Structure formats: C-alpha cells, structure tokens
Amino acid sequence: MKKIIILGATGSIGKIALDIARKFPQKLHVIGLQAHTQADTLLTLQKEFPHATLALTGASHPNQHLLQGQDALCRLIQNTHADLVLNAIAGASGLHASLYTLEKGIDLALANKESIVMAGEYLKKIAEKNGAKILPVDSEHSALFYLMKSPLAVDEYIITASGGAFRGKKVTDLHQVTAQEAMKHPTWRMGAKISIDSATLANKGLEVIEAWKLFDIPIDKINVLQHPQSLVHALIRTQDGALHAYISETYMELPIQNALLDPELALASCSFLDLVDKTLSFTAIDHETFPMVNLAYQACRQGDPYPIIYNASNEEAVALFQAGKIPFLAISRIVESALSQLYPHPFNPLILADIWQADRWSREFSSNYYKENHTC
Ligand code: NDP
Ligand code: MG
C-alpha cells in the first residue's frame, strides 16, 4: 500500500487524483491533503479520507485540525512519512513543495511543471542525492517517459498542442478577446491559469522547457505540432525513421494514475479508446499569431535564468490579463520584453536563492513594464 500526499487537492488535477485514490483503495492510502484557500472542500474530504493530515496554506480557518501558517506545507510533507507526493499546486509557488518532497527522499509525481522550468537541474540533483524519483504527470511528458523506454536511438521528440481556445485565429481576431473566452479550452478541462496558457500556447512553451530540463533532450531535437484532437500526446522519431506515437484519451486520469502507481501500470483500468472513425490531424504551429512557443525556445537557447524569467513574466502577465488590465496580445509582448533584457545578477542554477531572485526580478520587470506602457 503506497502512502500518498495530494497537494492542490481542490484543483483540477487534485480532483482526478482523488478519484484515482477512490478507485484503488488497496493500492493508494491518502495520508495528506493540501489546499490553498478552499478550507471547506478540504474539511469535507477529511470525512472520506480520515487518515489524511490536512494543510491549508493560503487562508486561515478556526478548525484546529488543519495545519496552517507559513510552514504548514513543509510540516505536511516532512512529518507524515509518505511514499509519494503528488504536486498539483498551480504556479511558481509549487517549487517549495517539490523541494520539501525531494529533500526528504520522497518520490515526486510532478504536475507542477513550473518546478522543473525554474529549477530542473537543482531538483534532479536533490532527487539523485536522496534516492527519490521525479515522475512526470504532464500528459506529454508522461507519454515521452514511456516512449523513451524504446531501445532505439531517438532523433526527434514531438509534443502536441491542442491549439487552445483560439486555434485557427489570427492576430487581428485576438485584440479584444477576454479571459473568459481564453479559458474555454476546446478539449481539456483544466485550471484557469493553464487554460489561458493553452490559449497563448505558453503552456506548450513551458512544456518544451520542461522536456528539455526533465529529460536532458537537446533543445533542437524537441518539436511541437498542433493536433486538435488531443489524442496523440507525444511522438518520438527513432533513428530508423519510424515515428512512435503515444495515444490515449483526452483526460488526465492515465498520466496521473501511472505516476501514482509507478512502477506498476494500472493495466486497462482507464476507459478504452476506440480509434474507429476518429481523425488524427497535425499542423505546424502558427508562430506569428502565437509567439510564446518560439519565445520558450529562445529562453532555452539564452540559457539560465531565462526559462525562469519566461515563466515568471508569463505568470505576471496572465494575472494582469485576468484582472482585465492588459489585452491578450500583451501577454507575449511582456514576456518578449523580459527575455530581451540583460539579467543583471549573477546566477547559479544550483543555488536556490539565485532561482528565486531571478523569479522576483522578472516579476518586477514585468509589472514595471506594464506600469510604463499602461495597456502595453
Ligand atoms: P487549479 O487552478 O485547478 O488548482 C490549483 C491547486 O493549487 C488548488 O488546489 C489550489 O488551492 C492550489 N494553489 C493555488 N495557488 C497556490 C499557492 N500559491 N500555494 C499552494 N497551493 C496553491 O490548477 P490545475 O489543477 O489545472 O494545475 C495544477 C498544476 O498542474 C499546474 O502547475 C499545471 O500547469 C499542471 N498541469 C495541469 C493539467 C491539467 O489538466 N489541469 C495538465 C498538466 C499539468 P485552492 O483551490 O484551495 O485555492
Ligand atoms: Mg501538458
């Protein structure tokens, strides 16, 4: 029986993870749950998972049984003796949880792609030192993880993009679009931030960086294809020229389940995908309308700390867009401008303080850029 902690239990990934725990009571024992603001949902979950220690990290609540305060997350992870932590916290703050987990030598099922984008090298070093695994949850990376078990040498790694809410649109169509429209994802049901990132294709940009850092793939071997059906999650091209595709439902159940149950694959427990009469189509990314993918490649080529700067400036810009302060098209302009700056501080990817300094610098730059350019 694997003892697991689910972080971000009230979010889109967290809820699917809870369903998986319900489905495998003989294999998964939930001993910890974290939410940021939704105390009531967390307390309701306790009735169903009575052995779970609960942590509320972003609000206060009179219930004495909740771990609260600044160190609640750290106490939850480090005092409960879990075998695996699922990190499904949204945004850069998820990095703390990844660190607490790996420092304790606990396996990490990682949905929080920001952790790897910001501190891939650092996290992998700690994981190795403490004998812990990092198991990808992002569907494309989960797919690559299994495809890469191929004994053949790989020439190309392809991740797919649904195209988000504005697939097929041109720049002229996007001047006035709202956050509500950007969040209407055509194929995936996800949290607000990642849905907007899908509309700008920043999510795919982050995933290019994630693949590059997680698997040490040369950046020039990673490609992105638009695939509206979201059934093929990743492909590899082996040296003999063949393409191998990973095809599964457009639902996060399988990648989460495989990470939670690793190394055991839950044989045929997800719904059977019937390909009869299904169309699978692929097109190139429209980089002119959606510059965020190319900006991610640029960040990788510029090297550290530019992936951190990409992530933080995007987070700031998305928050401004959600607040109605900037138009949709300004998101990529802010990120492009942040990447064009010469980073003014020394940076060592193995020093945590340097990682957070780059994150802060990028947020300050982006917020000042907005103030100076108003609606950008
Ligand atoms: P949601 O917005 O649906 O959920 C986020 C969760 O994180 C909630 O439980 C929320 O708590 C908690 N949270 C929010 N802010 C903080 C914070 N500052 N500190 C601690 N906890 C916080 O997000 P998703 O589930 O969609 O995404 C989670 C992560 O997984 C992201 O990194 C995303 O990129 C990644 N991911 C998501 C996929 C998806 O299909 N949704 C697919 C692949 C990756 P509360 O609700 O209580 O405030
Ligand atoms: Mg993904």
Describe the structure.
It is a single chain. The protein has 376 residues and is α/β, with parallel strands linked by helices. The protein has helices at 12-23, 39-48, 72-79, 94-103, 113-130, 139-147, 179-182, 192-200, 202-215, 253-261, 292-302, 306-322, 330-339, 352-373, and strands at 2-7, 28-35, 53-56, 66-68, 84-87, 107-110, 134-136, 154-161, 222-226, 232-238, 243-247. Strands 4-3-2-1-5-6-7 form a seven-stranded parallel beta sheet, with helices on both faces. A four-stranded mixed beta sheet has the order 9-8-10-11, with helices on one face. A hairpin with a 4-residue loop joins β10 (232-238) and β11. It is globular, with a radius of gyration of 20 Å. The chain starts with a strand and ends with a helix. NADPH dihydro-nicotinamide-adenine-dinucleotide phosphate binds next to α1, α5 and α8. Residues 8-14, 35-38, 57-58, 88-91, 93-94, 111-114, 138, 188, 190-192, 194, 252 line the site of NADPH dihydro-nicotinamide-adenine-dinucleotide phosphate.
Helix content range of the residues, please? 40-55%
Oligomer: single chain
Number of helices: 14
- Give the mean pLDDT: 95
- Radius of gyration from the alpha-carbon trace, in angstroms: 20 Å
Distance between the termini: 53 Å
Listed once per kind, the bound small molecules are: NADPH dihydro-nicotinamide-adenine-dinucleotide phosphate, magnesium ion
* Spatial strand arrangement across the major sheet: 4-3-2-1-5-6-7
Helix-strand blueprint:
Layout: E1 2-7, H1 12-23, E2 28-35, H2 39-48, E3 53-56, E4 66-68, H3 72-79, E5 84-87, H4 94-103, E6 107-110, H5 113-130, E7 134-136, H6 139-147, E8 154-161, H7 179-182, H8 192-200, H9 202-215, E9 222-226, E10 232-238, E11 243-247, H10 253-261, H11 292-302, H12 306-322, H13 330-339, H14 352-373
Parallel strand pairs: 1-2, 1-5, 2-3, 3-4, 5-6, 6-7, 8-9
Antiparallel strand pairs: 8-10, 10-11
Helix pairs in contact: 1-10, 3-4, 4-5, 5-9, 9-11, 11-12, 11-13, 12-13, 12-14, 13-14
InterPro entries: DXP_reductoisomerase (IPR003821), DXP_reductoisomerase_C (IPR013644), DXP_reductoisomerase_N (IPR013512), DXPR_C (IPR026877), DXPR_C_sf (IPR036169), NAD(P)-bd_dom_sf (IPR036291)
Binding site for NADPH: 10-13, 112, 114, 191
Pathway: Isoprenoid biosynthesis; isopentenyl diphosphate biosynthesis via DXP pathway; isopentenyl diphosphate from 1-deoxy-D-xylulose 5-phosphate: step 1/6
